[in-house]
Amino acid sequence: MQTKISEEFSHSAEGQEAEQILRQCVHCGMCNATCPTYQLLGDELDGPRGRIYLIKQVLEGQQPTQKTQTHLDRCLTCRSCETTCPSGVQYARLLEIGRDIVEKKVGRSITQKMLRGVLKNGLSNPRLFQHALTWGRKIKPVLPRQLQEKIPAATSPGVMPQAEHARKVIMLEGCVQPGLAPNINAATSRVLDRLQIQTVRPQQAGCCGAVRLHLSDTDGAIVAAKNNIDAWWPLVNEALDTRVEHIVMTAAGCGVTVKDYGHLLAHDSAYAEKAKKISALTCDLSELLTDSVPELIALVGGEITEKLVWHAPCSLQHGQQVRGKVESILQSLGVAVQTCADSHLCCGSAGTYSILQSDLARQLRDNKIRALEASGADVIVSANMACQQHLQTGTKMPVLHWIEVLDQALANRSALIGPVDAVSDGTDIATVAEPVVTSPVLMPSESEIAAMLQANGETTVAKKKSGKATGRKKAAGPTKTGKSKKQ
Ligand code: SF4
Ligand code: SF4
User: Fold this and answer.
1) What is the signed CA dihedral for 176, 365, 86, 218, rounded to 10 degrees?
2) pLDDT digits (tens, 9 = 90+) for 160-192
3) How many CB atoms lie within 10 A of CB 117?
4) 291 in Cβ contact with 332 (< 8 Å)
5) What is the pTM of this model?
6) Last-in-domain residue among 288, 317, 339
């Protein structure tokens, strides 16, 4: 696509970067086919190609209007278009630049400014958010229905492991996740603990910056990124014993943002190198656990008997281009996991989108739920708390983070044989915590484990736990989802 960037932007780093991106677009329109807002609204300007044109016009000197802003606002930043684009157009980065310019030139009404200010400051501050949530729960009955459904009941995270291990990873706890779904981080710590991996959680770390980026506050996102880099940097120093292996993300929305710190701070001489390293160390939980499949099979292989349907967050499948890993891990554990029709489409959560574009978000949610429910599964699993909360407002099916399912399976297995570490007094493990056995389901034998590994393309058989567990029967107690296990 030919461009003639105006004098106003042609000398800035952002203007030049935008020009490079625009030149890659060949205007083919293939991206429109997989754009959720184009599918819903059928308007060229509510698809990626149209939005690219709008941004091009602004960069070439045309004054943006409120209409321009509306079309850019309606974008979910789901990045499905990037996955589809044959020319590798970095649409999300172009949108970020375009939105920033339009924000400054068009502005917002007082009401809009106030709402966006509350979201920016309230959602990105874990303490403030926790206070607001506590109050919200108290006055929930008198709140409008739309707000009520966004306030889930309080849940307990359970016990956080305290053991130290030689292998360590930093875990970003996030800003709203500890308040809305505290079990996710705790479940992650428990599963990693059983794999002899310690989760380190520096208190100074906070919001990843995604909320501010969604609200066109790039400067605020940069402050958040620098704060996290400062919090993590002492732990990634290779000269220290405390060095961590990875920075693990339990929310795909945070993961895509932290993986982009290197790019966000590329022009900051004090932080550019550090940011690059932090991004390189960052991984999604599924990327980390892919290497631990043999141990996981030994720990919980055959334990999960519910049928699961996988909802792939856009921030994972399109933003991070991580696809198939969660499904592969679950399948290796013998879990029946399905995907739904149109799994590439966004559920409508998209950061603050479900609040600021609630009508479109509800339509996308309902379409997604119809597809997920049609799978006939018992439980929806995902890898992004925001998607989970959004989907849960529209279905009675339980919506969990996939690590919570693994954690529950570990708890079920421990209830059967007792925590292995607790058997330190010479007591025969067979006499510990004998449960009421109501199910004939056997834990997997070594040959079954070998078969599961083979199905996953692995050759190593983990014997550590399976030796003790082989032949034991398990109780059919209630699961986290409130269902009894299927026999
Ligand atoms: S698919 Fe890529 S090249 Fe084609 S119009 Fe969309 S962004 Fe441009
Ligand atoms: S990011 Fe998503 S909503 Fe936005 S243009 Fe691309 S496909 Fe459409």
Assistant:
1) -30
2) 999 999 999 999 998 888 888 899 999 999 999
3) 13
4) no
5) 0.84
6) 288
Angstrom distance (rounded) from CA 121 to CA 111: 15
How many Cβ atoms sit within 10 Å of the Cβ of residue 176? 22
Which residue minimizes the CA distance to atom 6 of ligand 1?
Answer: 31
Instruction: Tell which one of 2, 3, 28 to mutate to probe ligand 1, the residue whose CB is within 8 A of the most ligand atoms.
Output: 28
CA atoms of 179 and 134, how far apart (whole Å): 9
Residue that terminates a domain, selected from 46, 79, 106: 106
Across 143-147, 270-274, 432-436, which has the greatest mean pLDDT?
270-274
Give the Cα separation of 450 and 212 in Å (integer): 47
Q: Is 372 in the pocket of ligand 2 (CB under 6 A)?
A: no
- The structure tokens listed for 370 are 């119809």
- Write out the residue range of the structural domain in which residue 163 sits: 112-288
Residues 445 and 315 in one domain: yes
| Domain total in the chain | 3
Digit-coded pLDDT (tens) for 300-355: 989 999 999 999 999 999 999 999 999 999 999 999 999 999 999 999 999 899 98
Answer whether residue 28 is part of any domain. Answer: yes
